[in-house]
Amino acid sequence: MNKAMNEQEQSALIELIYQLGDDDFILAYRGSEWLGLAPHIEEDVAFSSISQDMMGHATMYYHLLEELGEGDADGLAHLRKPGAFRNAILLEKVNGSGTYLEKPDYDWAFTVVRNYFYAVHKQIRLESLRLSTYEPLGDAARKIMTEQYYHLMHWELWFKQLVTSTDVAKKRMLSAVGKVWKDFGGVLTLGPSYSEMVKAGFIEDENLLKKRWLNRIDRIFEETGVPPQGEPLIESGNGRKGEHTQDLADALATLSEVYATNPASGW
Amino acid sequence: MQAGLRFEQLTNEEKHQHFMERINRGEKIEADDWMPDDYRTSLIRLISMHGISEIMGALPEKEWVPKAPSLHRKLAIMAKVQDEMGHGQLLLRVAEDLMAPLGNTREDIMQDLFSGKLKFHNVFHMEAPTWGDAGMIAWLVDGAAIISQSMMLDSSYGPYARALKRICAEEVFHAQHGESIILALAEGTPEQRELLQDALNRWWTSLIMFFGPKSAKETGNSNADRNIMYKIRTKTNEELRQEFFTKYIPRIWALGLTIPDETIHFDEETQLWIYQDVDWSEFKQIVSGNGPRSQDRLDLRRRSYDNNGWVREALAAQKAI
């Protein structure tokens, strides 16, 4: 640690790292549900590699929390109640109807848009975290960025290809953009303790990050002919405050099904 | 150039003889080389079945990807299943090159899978109801796969041999990942040991079946014999099964697990493992799509294929521009 943090700073830092870890954790899970169901085999290979990377990123963040005295990483991933999660609600939403085991009617357009918009934001967020006053966070960000670069390229290619293709594809993609937009504000916010995070220099101002995100998305919209969407909303609730949907509770039950039978035992 | 011209003038019989001389010298056949029709069809059958098995094989393990009981295990099983998908893709590319002169494509492979014409490995038709099964699949099913694939590393068909080289290297990591899961369970609580023993009981018959019947008598076809003649493979099903026993039975016993076959033992005189043979008509039923999870898993793939039809169309339209 660079210098001694006061209690308020430490709790803001912990809050921030929960957001970062939980965002990646839950979206990696949603990605892993697609395994074997992607539009073609090459995509199955690429997408599962991305999900695996993201699960690795979440693990890195949980280890940072472990170092900050929050308990062990496996417990953080598997034993917290939904209310203790700080991911944005958009990222916990199901991929479509059905479950990953039964009748999965998953929506590829929603998956592409959600992942692409998130990848753009993640890139911007990492660029800011790279300069964090909390050095372990800066180190983690630099490591993650080497993989994130490819994720962003991957989803950007999908987005551009589909949104400029057949009428059916265009229609599905625009409808997915509308759906994602309604909750993307929840990804962009840093939650109630954001001013402490910024004051301590852990990350930059959320408004600044949001502006960078909007600029980049506007450029892509212009390039691909997607109409402007206005201000991103937080319709389903604010995950940064611990507000969540049943989708998260169901996902966590699956993620911890085996671990929770005996957390004390080695697996 | 001149040699090429001369080759074209040979009769089919002479070409066949030339081909056999090449493979008997240990030369590798490449995708564009002349090959007998039944060599090509044997390879297509073998490699598309192998490729699609890798892809269908991702499904039983996928059931356990999100549920893997620690972050470390989650990452490991994600990596493993991704590898399997990658193997499937690599093998389908090899099969596609062989199919091209016949005017067939990946689409035909997928349609043959959906219609049941293209079969996949018996093990991937089975249930995997607990985390113990995830361990058992990675340890013993992948262990069995390494044994049967290693014998083809020197296959007469170069592209297949090269793909297998990479696949086998990765399978070794999978078997280690499986062994690590198994060890953790074996050293764990009584409940965890029970999970493990139950999984072994469930998988034993499937593992015997994995290598296929002893001889053409049980199946009524001679694919294996022809593949040996063409040096696509080098060992019989039974030789591979015996190798598997020799490698894994001592390890299973060392963990204190019981093999669900009271008769199994090593016969010093014949230097062979004596074991209870399985019901090969059941094997036929399973690989024909009547296993406990055959249709559920096929349905998953059919459903995703249908749901994503618009994506394939959109990509095709982009290519056409």
UniProtKB/TrEMBL annotation, chain A:
<dbReference type="GO" id="GO:0005829">
    <property type="term" value="C:cytosol"/>
</dbReference>
<dbReference type="InterPro" id="IPR011882">
    <property type="entry name" value="PaaC"/>
</dbReference>
<protein>
    <submittedName>
        <fullName>Ring-1,2-phenylacetyl-CoA epoxidase subunit PaaC</fullName>
    </submittedName>
</protein>
<dbReference type="InterPro" id="IPR012347">
    <property type="entry name" value="Ferritin-like"/>
</dbReference>
<dbReference type="GO" id="GO:0010124">
    <property type="term" value="P:phenylacetate catabolic process"/>
</dbReference>
<dbReference type="InterPro" id="IPR052703">
    <property type="entry name" value="Aromatic_CoA_ox/epox"/>
</dbReference>
<dbReference type="InterPro" id="IPR007814">
    <property type="entry name" value="PaaA_PaaC"/>
</dbReference>
<dbReference type="Pfam" id="PF05138">
    <property type="entry name" value="PaaA_PaaC"/>
</dbReference>
<dbReference type="InterPro" id="IPR009078">
    <property type="entry name" value="Ferritin-like_SF"/>
</dbReference>
UniProtKB/TrEMBL annotation, chain B:
<dbReference type="GO" id="GO:0010124">
    <property type="term" value="P:phenylacetate catabolic process"/>
</dbReference>
<dbReference type="Pfam" id="PF05138">
    <property type="entry name" value="PaaA_PaaC"/>
</dbReference>
<dbReference type="InterPro" id="IPR009078">
    <property type="entry name" value="Ferritin-like_SF"/>
</dbReference>
<dbReference type="InterPro" id="IPR052703">
    <property type="entry name" value="Aromatic_CoA_ox/epox"/>
</dbReference>
<dbReference type="InterPro" id="IPR007814">
    <property type="entry name" value="PaaA_PaaC"/>
</dbReference>
<protein>
    <submittedName>
        <fullName>Ring-1,2-phenylacetyl-CoA epoxidase subunit PaaA</fullName>
    </submittedName>
</protein>
<dbReference type="GO" id="GO:0005829">
    <property type="term" value="C:cytosol"/>
</dbReference>
<dbReference type="InterPro" id="IPR011881">
    <property type="entry name" value="PaaA"/>
</dbReference>
<dbReference type="InterPro" id="IPR012347">
    <property type="entry name" value="Ferritin-like"/>
</dbReference>
<dbReference type="GO" id="GO:0097266">
    <property type="term" value="F:phenylacetyl-CoA 1,2-epoxidase activity"/>
</dbReference>
